[in-house]
Amino acid sequence: MKIYCEKDYEAMSRRAAGILGAQVILKPDSVLGLATGSSPVGTYQELIRRYEAGELDFSKVTSVNLDEYKGLSGENDQSYRYFMNIHFFDHVNIDKSRTFVPDGLAKDSQKACTEYNAIIRREGPVDLQLLGLGNNGHIGFNEPAPIFEKETHCVDLAASTIEANKRFFEKEEDVPRQAYTMGIGNIMQAKKILIIVSGEGKADIVAQAFCGPVTPEVPASILQFHSDVTLVGDEAALSKLMERLEQ
Ligand code: GLP
Questions:
Q1: Is residue 143 flagged as an active site residue?
Q2: Please, are residues 144 and 209 in contact by the beta-carbon 8 Å criterion?
């Protein structure tokens, strides 16, 4: 695993954008696995800046997003489709018809999952998967569980995730209780993985995920078994991991 320990959120975002940007320069028709949350916002801003400066071209890129809240339409300002549009897609020359996010409004959940798996198979393999890290070690919406789920599935959100994500909603009751997420198997099939973490609040879970036992109770720990993972974090988030690696 490659680790970049950056000074702060801005430096983390620049580093991550550099890695994603290099991927697109080297392979203009890359398939990017994309993520939401507060961690990647700065990365997307930096990619937009580089696009506006003429350094990047997204016209041949395909994207598949990790997850979506069940029950929210793409027009809902809390949906992940909406997030991707306003934070990234609307500002670069990506072909929106080549951007994929699970359908939060699908009538039949099982069918929605099967269809998303088919999209990942058809468009994939993902060249570079961007990930954030949940406070409880989740990746996408793969919550701590007794087993690693392989493919896209509908998940009951953990109480701690609802608590963490309520900051984006008016009130806690508005946070959807379920979501669609790529499975751990889908994520692990990406050729390369880029995980970004920031803030002191993530320091313990980062150390657990990358130095602790590989267990579905800490879903991100499975990344220890992937052969091409780059972790980019700020000093605060990486502090405990660095301590353990130095021991
Ligand atoms: C959300 C998303 C994840 C994201 C995580 C961390 O629940 N489903 O994909 O990585 O939370 O979010 P943040 O970056 O805001 O800490």
A1: yes
A2: no
CB 230 within 8 A of CB 216: no
What global pTM score does this model have? 0.97
Q: Provide the 3-class DSSP secondary structure of residue 181.
A: strand
Q: How many angstroms separate the alpha carbon of residue 134 from the centre of ligand 1?
A: 5
**Nearest atom in ligand 1 to 165's CA:** 7
> If you measure from the C-alpha of residue 197 to the centroid of ligand 1, how many angstroms do you get, rounded to a whole number?
10
- DSSP class of residue 59 equals T
Strands 192-197 and 153-156: unpaired
First to last CA, the chain: 17
Q: How far is the CA of 50 from the centre of ligand 1 (A)?
A: 24
Measured CA angle at 118 (ends 135, 127), to 5 deg:
60
Q: In the structure, what pLDDT confidence band is assigned to residue 247 with cuts at 50, 70 and 90?
A: confident
Residues 6+ apart with CB under 8 A from 166: 172, 174, 175
Using one digit for the tens of pLDDT, what is the confidence trace for 51-69? Answer: 999 999 999 999 999 999 9
Is 135 within 8 Å of 202 (Cβ atoms)?
yes
Distance CA 80, CA 68 (A): 5
| Ligand 1 pocket member 176 (CB < 6 A) | no
The residue whose CA has the least distance to atom 5 of ligand 1 is: 134
Specify the residue with its C-alpha closest to ligand 1, atom 1: 37
